[in-house]
Amino acid sequence: MRVKNIAAGIAGLVAATGIVYELYQIMQDRKEANKLEMSISTPANGPKVTTYSKPTNLEMLASNQKASDCDENLWNHVYHPQRLQILERCKTVTGTIDHIKPEPDGDLHIRLRLDPQYGGMLNEKNMTVQHGCLVIEPVCVKEITQQDAIDACMGFNSTVRIPKKGDHVRVTGAYILDKPHGWTELHPVTSIEVIQ
Q1: What is the reported pTM?
Q2: 3 state DSSP class of 2
Q3: Where are the domains of the chain?
Q4: How is the chain split among helix, strand and coil, in percent rounded to 5?
Q5: So what CATH class is 62-194?
Q6: How many Å apart are CA 187 and CA 87, to the nearest integer?
């Protein structure tokens, strides 16, 4: 019995050491490691979800796309980033612009009707509240009237090209869950390219 307890304790220590080492490596990749807040959760019957309240250089965590395809510096211009749960660090999708609305935080709230191959990115809230669309949000594009968002956009000029309603586009950005609203988005958006 005692041997089993010792073996279980050693296995737990080895697992904890691996987690600590992984966190150390992530922090080494981050110039401002003291600002990193991270939590990892594994919901029942679901994928491991990593939530960051501040950006990191996470090339090692990118799934099917290089993290370098997304501008990590844009996270410096997202107000209250802890409200966004990162599902994939960087994702590119295509679809048609359905609706564009400026938000008080300076971002544009754009509904993108995804091309069929990306339909799996939508959840129930996307279907019901966002009319079956993925939300994409270029940050700091418009006038900011929301007080707690002013600092995030201070001195930043977005270079993301803003499309028109009806444009067929290719969009690259972080694939996230907007926790307060419950729908999925690409936010912040690194690029929008009009395609044929």
Answers
A1: 0.65
A2: helix
A3: 62-194
A4: 30, 30, 40
A5: mainly beta
A6: 11
Type of residue numbered 70: C
CA distances from 176 to 12, 45, 50, 110, 188 (A): 31, 19, 10, 15, 9
Return d(Cα 46, Cα 17) in angstroms, integer.
Answer: 25
Burial label, 106 (beta-carbon count in 10 A; 0-12, 13-18, 19+): buried
- CA atoms of 61 and 38, how far apart (whole Å): 13
User: Which phi and psi (to 5°) does residue 99 adopt?
Assistant: -165, 145
Query: Tell me: the pLDDT tens digits for 64-110?
Result: 455 568 999 999 999 899 999 999 999 999 999 999 999 999 899 99
Structure token pair of residue 117? 């191959």
Closest Cα partner for 174 from 95, 60, 84? 84
| Degrees, nearest 5: CA angle 49-55-44 | 5
Distances (CA, A) of 167 to 1, 117, 193: 67, 18, 9
Rounded Cα distance between 107 and 173, Å, is 14
